[in-house]
Amino acid sequence: MAKRGAFSSFHSFLIVLLFLNSVLAVTHGHQDKQVYIVYMGSLPSRADYTPMSHHMNILQEVARESSIEGRLVRSYKRSFNGFVARLTESERERVADMEGVVSVFPNKKLKLQTSASWDFMGLKEGKGTKRNPSVESDTIIGVFDGGIWPESESFSDKGFGPPPKKWKGICAGGKNFTCNNKLIGARHYSPGDARDSTGHGTHTASIAAGNAVANTSFFGIGNGTVRGAVPASRIAVYRVCAGECRDDAILSAFDDAISDGVDIITISIGDINVYPFEKDPIAIGAFHAMSKGILTVNAAGNTGPDTASITSLAPWLLTVAASTANREFVSKVVLGDGKTLVGKSVNGFDLKGKKFPLVYGKSAALSLSQAKCAEDCTPECLDASLVKGKILVCNRFLPYVAYTKRAVAAIFEDGSDWAQINGLPVSGLQKDDFESPEAAVLKSESIFYQTAPKILSFSSRGPNIIVADILKPDITAPGLEILAANSLRASPFYDTAYVKYSVESGTSMSCPHAAGVAAYVKTFHPQWSPSMIKSAIMTTAWSMNASQSGYASTEFAYGAGHVDPIAATNPGLVYEITKTDYFAFLCGMNYNKTTVKLISGEAVTCSEKISPRNLNYPSMSAKLSGSNISFIVTFNRTVTNVGTPNSTYKSKVVLNHGSKLNVKVSPSVLSMKSMNEKQSFTVTVSASELHSELPSSANLIWSDGTHNVRSPIVVYTGDFSQPSSS
After folding, report:
1. pLDDT digits 0-9 by tens, 596-646
2. Is 145 in the active site?
3. Nearest partner of 329 among 449, 430, 240, 475, judged by Cα
4. 154: phi > 0 → left, psi -120 to 50 → alpha, else beta; which?
5. Are residues 322 and 332 part of one domain?
6. How far apart are CA 200 and CA 204, in angstroms?
7. Strand (E) positions, 227-374?
8. Pairing state between β 620-623 and 647-656
C-alpha cells in the first residue's frame, strides 16, 4: 500500500501511538474494536486547521464506513495533536501504514504512588520564611491524580483574589462540584466527576499547595498546623485516575494543563514496568510541558528496595524518592513487668492505661490441625470466642482480623520502616521485641527526633535502565507518615468512619513536596526554565550517605540528596538544558529522527548529537563494563551564573563510600563577571578498578564562599535488566 501524508503541507506529520485498551472492546464482524491512542505530534500552525475534523476524516478513511458514530473517544487539540478511537486490528494496521506512523504499542494502566515536614526542611510558617506573595498568588500547580475534595479547608479561598489573568482553564468538576479562587480549575476524564473517592488526590494537592489549617490531627495524634509549600498559590486538579489510571487520560490532562496555563505539574503516578520514552505517556506529556516552560515532578515509585526498580527515567522529569523526616508515629506496648516496647502504627486509639490479656493466634485456633494457620491469624482458623476482649498477637500484619474477631487490640511482627493506619490499638514490633508477655497496655503517640533523613525501603531505586548515564532518582523528599487533607468519601479504616485529615506514606507524598519546592523557587525566579529550577533543587540538596551496603542505599536511592527549599532559591550556579539539548541527547541515544518526533512532536534532523553522559545534567553518571578494569571517563558541563555578578568559584572534590576515584576538574576555577554568564568545564574521572558491591562516587562542589553548588559523580558497573519494549 502506498503511504500518504495526511497534511504534509501543514508542516506536520502523523505519529501513531496505539495504546491497547483491553477493557473497552466491542464486537465488529469477526474483529473486536479496541481503544487506541493516535498521537500526531505538534498542532499545525495553520489558522484554518480544525483538529477534530481532521481526526474524523482519518477515522472515515481507515474505517471505510459511511457512519463512524461512537468511534471517536476524545481528541487532543490544545497543546498537541491526536485522538483516541475504537479501531479493529485491520483498521489499526491501515492507520499504522499511513505516512509518518512509527510506533504501535498497548495501553497501560498506571498506579498511584502512595505539616511537620515543611518545618523539618526549614520552610517555616508565617514570617519565619521569606516569600514573594504576589508572585506566589499567580503560581498555578496542576495536580494529576484521583481528584480532590473541594470543600476541604485546605482549599478554601478565604482571602484570595480572582485567578491569575494567565489562567485559561475551566471548572468542569461535574455535578455539585464548585471551584473557587484557590481551587481554580477541575477536569475529569472518565464518567462521574472530579471528586476524590480514595483520598489520594486530596492528600497530594494539600501537601504541595494547601492552605495553612491550624489544630489538625489524625484522631488526636500529629496535632498542629497542616499546610503546603506555597499556600498562597492556586490549584488546578485533573482527575486522571478513577479506579485505574490510563494512558489516554494522562495525555489528555497534559494536553489541557499545558494550554490552561499551569506552572508546575505534580504527578504521583507511575508504572511497575519500564517503557521506552516513545511509549511512556508521562515522558511524552512532560516533554511537551517542558517545551512550554512547565516542570513536571514525578514520583519515583514504591517498588523498592530492589535495584533498578525505578520507572520515572526521562531526564526532563524531576524524579522524587521518599525518605524520613523528623517525626514518626509509634504505638508503645507496656508489658506486665513495666517494660516498654516501641512499635509502629498510625492510630488514634489506646487502652486508657488498662491491661488486657494477650492471646496468641495459635492458642485461639478452632482446632489443633489449624494451629499453624491460626499462628498467622488467618481469619477462618481463629475461634472468635477466644479472641474477643483480648489483645491478639499475630506473626503477620492482619489488623482487620482483630477488628472482625472483636479483639480490643493487636500486636504483630513487623520489620518494615513505615507504619500503616489502623482502626483499633495496634503495634507492629521488630522481631527482637516479639516475645511472649502475658498482658500489655498499648498507647499511640507521635515522636520527634534529630537524625539525618533515611531513604525508605519501599522507595524505588536506580540505576536508570533506559539511560545508564543519567542518574535516577534526582532527589528525595519526606514521604513517611505525612498528615494532609483527606476526602470525606475515603475511610481510613474498615468501616464508614471519615476524617478530614489523614496520614499516608509513599513516594506519592514525597512527589508533591518536591513540586511545592519547585513552585516556591519559581515564585522568586518566574522566568527560570524547568531545567534551571530542577538544577537549583538538585545542587543545593542536603548531602546523604549510604546507610547500608549494596547499591540500594547509595545515590541510586537518593540521587543528589534531600531537597532544601530555602537554599534552592539561591543556588549561585545552574546547569541549564534547552529543548535543543534534549533533541541532541535523544539523537545521541541513537534514536532515529522518527522516534525523536514520536517523543517531542517536532521534526528534527539529528544533525547534532551528544552522548547521554554529556547532557548538561546537574549530576554525573557513567556505567562501565567489567569491574577489574582501568578506565577514564569525562563529563562536559556548562554552568550559568545566577548568583552575583563578580564571583569566583573554586572546585572541590569529596570522595564517597571509600571510593578510590581520581577526579580532575579543568579549569578548576571559574571567574564570573556578569549575571547569566556561562562557563564550561570538564570533569575527568579515572581509577584502576571499580567496587563490585557499590558504585564509586564523589561530589564535585563549586564554591564562591557563599554558594556551594554540589553535583554527585557516580561510576558503576553491573548487569541490570533492560526495559521491556512491549
Report:
1. 988 888 889 999 999 999 999 999 999 998 766 789 999 999 999 999 999
2. yes
3. 449
4. alpha
5. no
6. 6
7. 234-239, 245-246, 264-267, 269-270, 295-299, 317-323, 327-335, 340-344, 356-360
8. unpaired
CA proximity to 536, closest of 505, 570, 499, 512: 570
Residue 348: CATH number of its domain: 3.50.30.30
Number of separate domains in the chain = 4
Rounded Cα gap, residues 79 and 309, in angstroms: 31
Question: How far, CA to CA in Å, does 507 sit from each of 228, 269, 557?
Answer: 16, 9, 12
Q: Residue 535: what are its φ and ψ, rounded to 5°?
A: -60, -45
Question: Domain of 378?
Answer: 328-447
Q: What is the pTM of this model?
A: 0.84
**Residue given cell 499545558 in the structure block:** 258
**Whether 348 and 263 share a structural domain:** no
- 8 A C-beta contact, residue 686 and residue 660: no
119: Cα separation from own chain's centroid = 21
Say which CATH number the domain at 643 has: 2.60.40.2310
Q: Which of 119, 138, 145, 247 is flagged as catalytic? A: 145
Do 295 and 148 belong together in one domain?
Answer: yes
Residue with cell 496535632: 223
Distances (CA, A) of 488 to 199, 485, 492, 500: 8, 10, 10, 6
Q: Active site includes 260?
A: no
Kindly state whether residues 263 and 301 are assigned to the same domain.
yes
| Burial profile 156-171: b = 16 or more Cβ within 10 angstroms, e = fewer | bbeebeebbeebebeb
Vertex 281, ends 276 and 284: CA angle to 5°? Answer: 80
Residue of 200, 203, 525, 707 marked active site: 200
Q: Is residue 307 assigned to a domain?
A: yes
The single residue of 42, 508, 510, 697 carrying the catalytic annotation is 508
Q: What is the pLDDT of residues 126-172, one digit of tens each?
A: 777 899 999 999 999 999 999 999 999 999 999 999 999 999 999 99
The region that residue 590 occupies, defined by phi over 0 for left and psi between -120 and 50 for alpha, beta otherwise, is left
Residues 6+ apart with CB under 8 A from 203: 482, 484, 485, 486, 502, 504, 508, 509
Distance CA(166)–CA(261), nearest Å, equals: 6
The answer on 411 and 422 residing in a single domain is: yes
Same-domain pairing of 57 and 154:
no
Q: Is 200 a catalytic residue?
A: yes
